[in-house]
């Protein structure tokens, strides 16, 4: 069986002092896990996070990066700026980026390619809205996001990518897909990847669940056959809760 990849997405939370407190509390709580632990922190916390986690089993990620290495892109961060700091992972295409900041499958692909070229490991997010699910379009939406968002990604590049399935209707709402709903959706996504890259590559691909997973429901979700980890929001902001998710699957 695969180990799990548990990534905490802090979103726009925690200044440097708060980040230090949280990371210091988290380190001893997850030191014995066989799972991969990632914290995706705000840009202003990256240096502190990299310094504090050095020599531990915690990896550091950013929450976005641009598709260009430099240029007139005010407010953006180049992938090489992240790797220069020691950052290893980057979240790309989160539903909040798609919803609030105009992210598209095309820009997700561009950011993913740039991140890979810089040596980062992208956590690429996909997922449907409640309207799309209720309208019977879940599979159509997920298929499009994989087809368009991974259009130019090679099988070798796919080995360095993590996919996060996050039903938009279950993010920050307290509503979680049932274990079976999450597992079935991820099984469908894996099937789309299998059609594109072959079954072996699809089986090897890590696909996380990212919709309000927390310390209370993580064990059930992580026990499902298709779920390879979690992209954790609110629960990642409390060391004990995030550690409980990390340690929910042995």
Structural summary, described in words:
There is one protein chain. By secondary structure, the chain is α/β, with parallel strands linked by helices. Helix content is 44%, strand content 15%. It is built from 12 helices and 8 strands. The chain has helices at residues 16-30, 46-53, 79-85, 95-101, 105-117, 130-134, 138-149, 155-158, 179-197, 199-204, 218-222, 239-246; strands spanning 5-9, 36-40, 58-62, 89-92, 121-126, 162-165, 206-209, 229-232. It has an 8-stranded parallel β-sheet. Helix 1 links the parallel strand 1 and strand 2 (36-40). Helix 1 (16-30) packs parallel to helix 2 (46-53) and helix 7 (138-149) crosses helix 9. The radius of gyration is 17 Å and the shape is globular. The N and C termini lie close together (11 Å). The relative contact order is 0.15. Involved in the gluconeogenesis. Catalyzes stereospecifically the conversion of dihydroxyacetone phosphate (DHAP) to D-glyceraldehyde-3-phosphate (G3P). Its main location: cytoplasm. Substrate binds at residues 9-11, 172, 212, 233-234. The active site is at 94 (electrophile), 166 (proton acceptor). This is Triosephosphate isomerase.
Number of strands: 8
N-to-C series of helices and strands: EHEHEHEHHEHHHEHHEHEH
Low-pLDDT residue intervals, each spanning 5 or more residues: none
> How can the largest sheet be summarized?
8 strands, parallel
> Counting H and I runs of at least 4 residues, what is the number of helices?
12
Tell me the structural class.
alpha/beta
- Taken from the alpha-carbon principal axes, the silhouette is globular
Pfam families: TIM
GO molecular function, one term: triose-phosphate isomerase activity
Family: Belongs to the triosephosphate isomerase family.
Keywords: Cytoplasm, Gluconeogenesis, Glycolysis, Isomerase
């Amino acid at each position: 069986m695969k180990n799990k990849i548990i990534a905490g997405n802090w979103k726009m939370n925690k200044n440097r002092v708060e980040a230090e407190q949280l990371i210091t509390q988290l380190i001893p709580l997850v030191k014995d896990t066989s799972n991969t632990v990632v914290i995706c922190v705000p840009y202003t916390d990256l240096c502190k996070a990299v310094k504090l986690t050095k020599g531990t089993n915690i990896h550091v990620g950013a929450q976005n990066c641009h598709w260009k290495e430099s240029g007139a892109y005010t407010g953006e961060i180049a992938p090489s700026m992240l790797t220069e700091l020691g950052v290893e992972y980057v979240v790309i295409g989160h539903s909040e980026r798609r919803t609030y900041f105009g992210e598209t499958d095309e820009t997700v692909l561009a950011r993913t390619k740039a991140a890979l070229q810089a040596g980062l490991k992208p956590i690429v997010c996909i997922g449907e809205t409640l309207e799309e699910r209720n309208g019977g379009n879940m599979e159509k939406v997920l298929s499009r996001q994989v087809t368009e968002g991974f259009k130019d990604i090679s099988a070798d590049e796919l080995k360095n990518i993590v996919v996060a399935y996050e039903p938009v209707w279950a993010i920050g709402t307290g509503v979680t897909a049932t274990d079976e709903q999450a597992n079935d959706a991820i099984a469908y996504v894996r099937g789309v990847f299998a059609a594109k890259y072959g079954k072996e590559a699809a089986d090897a691909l890590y696909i996380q669940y990212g919709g309000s997973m927390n310390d209370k429901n993580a064990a059930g979700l992580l026990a499902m056959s298709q779920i390879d980890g979690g992209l954790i929001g609110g629960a990642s902001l409390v060391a004990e809760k995030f550690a409980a998710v990390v340690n929910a699957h042995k």
